[in-house]
Design goal:
Strand content: 15-25%
Order of helices and strands: HEEHHHHEEEEEEEHEEEEEEEEHHHHH
Largest sheet: 5 strands, antiparallel
Distance between the termini: 14 Å
Structural class: alpha+beta
Shape: elongated
């Protein structure tokens, strides 16, 4: 009798085991199109005493090495995607293939100067020159505005990605907590593991996240060179914090326990967030700076030459363009209360168009550092007294502390501010074509025309036209490199995904085979019980 009861137990276990295996197979088939799902297998072992078998685990078929490779690849893909998107937009803004831009407008300006040199007193020629100069100024205004809009859009995207990071890390921490509560053979635990891994890969595409699994199966996620984002069921958060030294654009700050924060902006190496920061603060910012420098140089060079000539009334020292502004900014971490109260150009011919920093080494002493050449000059500070150097005058008023600094240049915002001088804008006769004050002389018009071939940039080796064309070429090369990098990273991710799919993906053919196998085994177990029942009835009836 005990043998028959043991057989009953073994058959019952067979039905339960194959029923569980059928449920796992059905789960696989149901998720054949679910992103990130890993196929599962019921792991079975024999019961030594009463006989039969039992399911001791629902195994999730996954390769940890491939998962980590995918996280790394997704980080590089996020960086490449952000750079490609931004540089493509940047290229469209600067490109002059389909619309006249600064390069074409500059060429037209010099053409109009050549026309004026042929008829120095002609009003149509003067009107043509003035209209061309206005068009160039407006073109530069439009270019800078569009670049500023792109830069602002990049900053908005930085803030959006920070919010996405916070949402993902919060979900991962929640899943960590749920996994910790789930049983080892709980089918739902595997779905949570899949969901967590999918979230980790999404996070890796945004920031350079790396994860580590502890003995309880919980993930610790670090980024930015080792700072923790997720530890068990706790998630740190990021926030966007305005940087006053960078036009108020957002820095990425990690909020930790209490009020402790760490600026990790410069520590982000891969991921979409790093790509957005890189393009905002380097690629787009460099384009803005280059067009500002172009506009400032153009205005000053034209003014210096124009002031040397005479207008139709015999007047001289007339600016053609509005004189460039002197930009000054107080560093946000200055300890003193001093402010720049006045800044102006004294001599346009002496301008270098380099960036400067006035650094205070004591409450009564400063150094003027040319950040381009690193040349340094020293002076004694007195509140309200002008500091004069390289064609500019800067007045700082108030108390200063050792280590305080002020940034100064004559290029910031020039592409937005360039405009005709009030005299030229109001009166065509104010255009100084004559070199000797006699009407009909074209000497100064020819000198203005000669600016087209004069070396201005790169230590006097590049003309205005060369500067713009070189900028277009360099940007085109950078945009193409970004496209190539994106294609490479997409290929790498596809290769890793293919390897993961071959191991973890659901094959309907394979699952159909398992379905038949478990179904037949289930039916066999039921047949054994039926046979044993008939046998038992026969024995009882004897």
């Amino acid at each position: 009798m005990s043998t028959i009861l043991g057989a009953f137990s073994a058959a019952r276990q067979s039905i339960l085991v194959n029923q569980r295996s059928l449920a796992v197979t059905g789960q696989n088939i149901a998720n054949v199109n679910t992103n990130g799902y890993s196929r599962q297998r019921a792991r079975i072992h024999a019961l030594p005493q009463m006989g039969g078998a039992t399911v001791y685990a629902i195994e999730r078929l996954r390769d940890g090495f491939l998962d980590k490779q995918r996280a790394i690849a997704k980080g590089a893909l996020g960086l490449a995607t952000a750079r490609d998107e931004a540089l493509s937009q940047l290229e469209m803004i600067v490109d002059e293939t389909n619309a006249l831009g600064p390069f074409g407008m500059l060429s037209d300006l010099f053409t109009k100067i050549q026309d004026l040199s042929l008829r120095p007193t002609g009003l149509p020629e003067r009107e043509g020159l003035r209209s061309s100069a206005i068009s160039l100024a407006n073109g530069l205004h439009t270019m800078r505005r569009r670049l500023e809009e792109l830069q602002q859009r990049q900053d908005d995207l930085v803030k959006e990605e920070i919010e996405k990071v916070n949402q993902i890390t919060s979900q991962i921490a929640g899943i960590n907590a749920a996994i910790n509560r789930a049983g080892a053979t709980d089918v739902g635990a595997n779905e949570m593991l899949d969901r967590r891994m999918e979230l980790v890969h999404q996070l890796s595409e945004l920031v350079d996240a790396r994860y580590y699994e502890d003995s309880d199966g919980l993930f610790t996620i670090v980024f930015a060179g080792g700072f923790s984002l997720v530890e068990g069921d706790h998630a740190a958060s990021l926030k966007a914090e305005a940087n006053p030294d960078n036009n108020g654009f957002a820095n990425v700050v990690l909020r930790r326990t209490g009020d402790m924060t760490i600026d990790v902006t410069d520590r982000l190496a891969t991921g979409r967030l790093a790509g957005l920061l890189n393009t905002r603060d380097e690629d787009v910012a460099n384009q803005i700076q280059r067009f500002d420098k172009f506009a400032a140089q153009l205005a000053a060079r034209f003014n210096v030459q124009h002031r040397a000539g005479y207008d139709l009334a015999g007047q001289t020292n007339i600016d053609f363009f509005r004189v460039v502004d002197v930009y000054g900014a107080r560093r946000s971490d200055n300890q003193g209360d001093a402010r720049i109260t006045d800044a102006q150009v004294l001599d346009q011919a002496a301008l270098t168009f380099d960036d400067y920093e006035i650094r205070f080494t004591a409450p009564d002493a400063y150094q003027i550092v040319n950040l381009t050449t690193q040349n340094t000059t020293s002076g004694t500070y007195a509140s309200g007294a002008p500091i004069v150097f390289d064609g500019v005058s800067v007045t700082i008023s108030g108390t200063v502390s050792d280590g305080d600094a002020f940034s100064v240049n004559t290029t910031h915002g020039a592409a937005s501010a360039i405009a005709l001088s009030a005299q030229v804008a109001a009166d065509l006769s104010a255009i100084a074509a004559s070199a000797d004050g006699l009407q009909g002389d074209n000497g100064n018009a020819l000198a203005l025309a000669a600016l087209e071939t004069q070396g201005v940039f790169n230590q006097g080796t590049a003309t205005f036209g060369h500067f713009l064309s070189a900028n277009l070429t360099a940007l085109g090369v950078a945009a193409q490199r970004a496209r190539d990098d994106l294609e490479t990273q997409e290929m790498i991710v596809a290769q890793v995904d293919g390897m993961i799919q071959s191991l973890s993906g659901v094959s309907l053919d394979e699952e159909s085979t398992y379905l038949l196998q478990y179904e037949r085994a289930f039916q066999a177990g039921a047949r054994v019980i039926q046979t044993l029942d008939e046998l038992l009835q026969t024995i009882i009836s004897i």
